[in-house]
Design a protein that fits this description.
Elements lengths: L1 H21 L3 H19 L8 E6 L1 H7 L10 H13 L4 E4 L9 H14 L2 E14 L6 E8 L3 H6 L2 E4 L11 E3 L1 E2 L5 E2 L1 H11 L5 H8 L1 H6 L4 H6 L3 H14 L1 H17 L5 H12 L3 E3 L11 E3 H6 L9 E6 L16 H4 L5 H14 L4 E2 L2 H21 L2 H26 L1 E2 L3 H35 L4 H9 L8 E13 L2 H7 L2 H21 L3 E6 L2 E8 L4 H22 L9 E17 L2 E7 L1 H16 L3 E4 H4 L5 E10 L7 E9 L5 H18 L3 H14 L4 H16 L4 E2 L2 E3 L4
Parallel strand pairs: 1-10, 1-11, 2-3, 2-11, 3-5, 12-13, 17-19, 20-23
Antiparallel strand pairs: 3-4, 6-9, 7-8, 14-16, 14-17, 15-16, 17-18, 19-21, 20-21, 22-23
Helix pairs in contact: 1-17, 1-19, 4-5, 7-11, 7-13, 7-16, 8-12, 11-12, 11-13, 12-13, 13-16, 17-18, 17-19, 18-19, 22-23, 26-27, 27-28
Amino acid sequence: MGQRLLQGLLFGVAAAALGMLAGTLPGTLRFEEDAGLGALFQLRGPRSAPAEVVVISLDKVSSDAFGLPNEPSKWPRTFHAELIDRLVAEGALVIAFDVLFDDPDEPAGDERLGAALKSARNVVLTAYLKKTALGSTRDGTLAITAEQVVPPIQTLAAGALAVAPFPLPVVPVKVSQFWTYKDSAGGVPTFPTVIFQTWMLRQSGGWYQDLRRACPVIASELPGEQASVLETRRVVELARLARACLRDNPQAAFATQNRWGLRLKTSTDLAPGSLRSLFEVYQGAEARYLNYYGPPRSIITVPYSQALRGDSLGMFGKIVLVGFSEQFQPEQKDGFYSVYSDASGLDLSGVEIAATAVANMLDGTAVKPLTFGPQLLVLGLWGLLTGVFCRLLAPLTAVAFCLLAVPMYVLWAWWVFDTTNTWLPLMVPLVIQLPIALLLGLLAQYRQTQTQKQMVLQALGSYLPAEAVKRLMQNLGDLKANAQLLHGTCLATDGEQYTSLAETLTPDELAALMNDYYEVLFAEVEHAGGVVTDVVGDSMMAIWTAATPNTAMRAGACHGALAIAAAVTRFNQVPGRQPLPTRIGLHSGPIRLGNIGGAKHVHFRAVGDIVNTASRVEGLNKLLGTRILVSGDTLADVTGLVTRELGTFLLAGKTTPLVIHELLGLEGSVAAPLLSRYERFQSALAVFRRGDWVGAGNLFDTLLTESPDDRAVQFYVALCSQYRERGPDSYENGAVRIGTK
């Protein structure tokens, strides 16, 4: 658990670091803005816009009503003059035209509109920014440009309260932000900022005096009263000076914020959201995120024709923005793609975007993305949380956790966005961090499972053959089903003097000796391609298997037997070690290999007649004084070996006789005199099989004189003598019956 927790913390740190890094990349930021912020708007849905902001739309409805072309630039400017007069009469606080008046019209119309502007003293006109190339970088790849404000024609600019540019991204880029200032144009305040600044100058509450106290440059450059700033048409200059002061002078910013905070506690003339917005506009970045109120026409919109010729509009205290805005897609010419464009089929017009920006500043609801520090904190904590849980939980539980974490995080982000207008990142946590944490957790779980599996295999390998373990792992559902019917050769061993060793050695000494002994035997079996299936005391059972009768498989078993005998000889020659001579027997035939047992206890065993027969063949070594005995079935078609046929035997408990051979070695490894003597043994054995006990006895007697220690010869000498005296009482159908195991 401790290691998994540590690993989970490391994965969490990795996911956190990856999220924090991704959160700073431009491409990720665009993806987050497009998909993440858009999702939050859709989840939140439309909401009410401030009633103080009104849009008067130059639209096809109005052009049809006036009998004019649906091209507002061709409308008589006297219409705009009449509209200004009417709005002023109704008490509109600020009037703003999102219409470019950069070309002269009919002189009478321009003069009439200029007079209306001068009389109203509250109209803000828009301008456009003209880019001028100043040069390029040394490699010529990047042009250096400057932006210059191009105002309306002089007649109109002179009458307006203020002129400000309103730059927006080019379609089809989704509009998510608006500029409050344009630093590339010398820090000029933009159209929405100037409108908002004008509205604030018409609000009482002492905020302007507080600003003058905090910023000496404003006190020295601008009039002492708000009304005088409007009368002298220095709104743009105020916005520019205030920003320069509060951004460059932290002490002034701190003092202003404190004074305005006290104002909000003691004055009822100021809207808290508006005053906070003014401070944020002055001190913040040059761009702010739009908090859309909904699809087009979410802000109160009045057709131009109704505003000009209709009944009273109730414009007292309002901010009125005039600009091109349509209700239907076919007529739309001035449109910008927004988060609500897909749902409505209609893009937002420029004037609606400006109105949205102004409304956001009025009610203090501009979208606030997390600043660098808090964003890193959110991404870091989220990455850490997901990394730890995805590592600690089981795979299916980790997946379920992730499936639950997605809606929970989205719900939290939506709640924060809905209540505080704070934009939490969505795409980085859910599309990057969470999948990465889950992938790391699953990979770690898989690696841990594989490690545990290898440990289990290694542990089982100490008790079971590798193939048995493999089949067992592939079919854990039914242990008894892990069995195969094969053709095989079974090798049985038995250690001499084991009983006496067990009596003379302590249990620890005996265990150490047997561990060393079996380590030697197991190595030779494995090297020869066999599998050890059972060990009991001083006895071992090993098998060589194949799907069909296989000469190479039987030859491998015989070579393995010779290698075991040689290895045991070397083992017994180690000084100070108790010798453990070993007898070996081999037999071949059908065999069942698999798990044997019942209830909850099973053993991996080789089962079949050849198992018992191999054990009986091995036991025959005691009687014949040999080390390795092999059945004729095992030697069939096997070449390259030197053997001595010892006769046909009916082993204890068996009904089928077996031809038994002594395995002597590989061809070329046995001396010629021994081979000659073994050939004469075969001749004597042939006479024995004819039932000539006298003749066979004489031949075996001669061999015994030459090799008095050959116990196989001794066996037949005694057997011939017994048969001469009492008859062949242990001889059946050409086979010697062995009564003991």
